[in-house]
Design brief:
Bound molecules: adenosine-5'-triphosphate
Distance between the termini: 39 Å
Oligomer: single chain
Number of domains: 2
Shape: elongated
Helix content: 25-40%
Strand order of the largest sheet: 5-6-7-3-8-9
Strand content: 25-35%
Order of helices and strands: EEEHEHEHHHEHEHEEHEHEEHEH
Length: 300
């Protein structure tokens, strides 16, 4: 598998503050990666380091297996790490034409990228007439002009209205579908869940989880159960080997699983013990619950 970026034990200190603490992860071609963490967890600092705008304190990173210099590598990277900034009185098209001139890119790409972000019809409108969402989409088009190997976005939907958020997420998925690797930083769990295939979870600069988003839900899940006799139900479940522990809240019993157990098998087992359920739902923790668990675990 082609490696786009590998980060090894990367650290950044601001005085005593460890903004990034011994962080390691690898980005492979063709996936959508999320760096997920609350505000101040070190997402922007990490992006700043690999984009060569923030100096690291320790560790290493290498682009494209270290086969080319960082300077050359960054020519294959499209990044938006600040609010989009273009000339307000110039049209979208003319702004992108200027970017092409500066970066020595063929102008023929402009229409294709404007189309991709849904702005082709507005190409002659002045930048200052654009909504925030349109400005962000123009920034994405601009970052894609040189067909980068990877697109890096820092909080791409910050400040946008629901429709704007939806459009940006659709565009990110579309770009990924065309084969571009994506790395996005976000503090929004559902954004990562909806857009990314892989995630690096950060808290106070430390890596709490790295892996596939779907595998992050690593537990076997739990059952939510109700019965007219909760006491008897609880006693019965305690004898079941696969039930790890039980929690009762009002009339709802939650039974956490240590191993695989189907709803059918549990229902049969309870019925044989003379217990009739009035409610049976099998659930897995959402990424949000999992994320909260991960962040709580290290909260001393
Ligand atoms: N130039 C700086 N000088 C001192 N401290 C800094 C500097 N830049 C960032 N920090 C601190 O480093 C930590 C990580 O900040 P960073 O911006 O990387 O986090 P983040 O996860 O991107 O959060 P946000 O979404 O709020 O930007 C924070 O505690 C922040 O205050």
């Amino acid at each position: 598998m082609d490696t786009i970026l590998s980060i090894n034990n990367l650290s950044k200190n601001y005085g005593k503050l460890k903004a990034v603490n011994n962080l390691s992860f690898t980005i492979n071609k063709g996936h959508v990666y999320g760096i997920l963490g609350p505000n101040g967890s070190g997402k922007s600092t990490t992006l700043g380091i690999v984009l060569n705008v923030v100096n690291k304190s320790g560790g290493t990173y290498s682009w494209f297996d270290g086969t080319i210099t960082t300077h050359e590598a960054l020519k294959k990277v499209g990044a938006i790490i600040e609010r989009p900034n273009f000339y307000p009185y110039m049209s979208a098209y003319k702004n992108l034409r200027l970017v092409c001139k500066i970066k020595n890119i063929d102008e023929s790409k402009i229409n294709e990228k404007l189309e991709l972000v849904g702005l082709l019809e507005r190409k002659d409108s002045k930048f200052k007439t654009f909504s925030l969402g349109m400005k962000q989409r123009l920034a994405i088009a601009s970052a894609l002009l040189n067909d980068p190997e990877i697109l890096i976005l820092d909080e791409p939907t910050n400040g946008l209205d629901p429709q704007g958020i939806h459009q940006i997420r659709d565009i990110i998925r579309k770009i990924a579908g065309l084969g571009t690797t994506i790395l996005l930083a976000s503090h929004l769990l559902d954004e990562v869940e909806k857009v990314c295939s892989h995630v690096v979870v950060l808290r106070k600069g430390e890596n709490l989880y790295t892996g596939r988003v779907d595998e992050m839900i690593s537990t076997n899940g739990f059952f939510e159960l109700k019965s007219e006799n909760l006491e008897a139900l609880a006693q019965c479940l305690e004898q079941h080997q696969v039930i790890k522990n039980i929690k009762i809240t009002d009339d709802l019993l939650t039974a956490y699983l240590e191993d695989e157990l189907s709803a059918k098998d549990l229902n049969e087992f309870l019925f044989q013990q003379g217990i009739t359920l009035t409610h049976l739902v099998k659930r897995k923790e959402s990424l949000e619950e999992q994320f909260l668990q991960l962040t709580n675990k290290t909260d001393h």
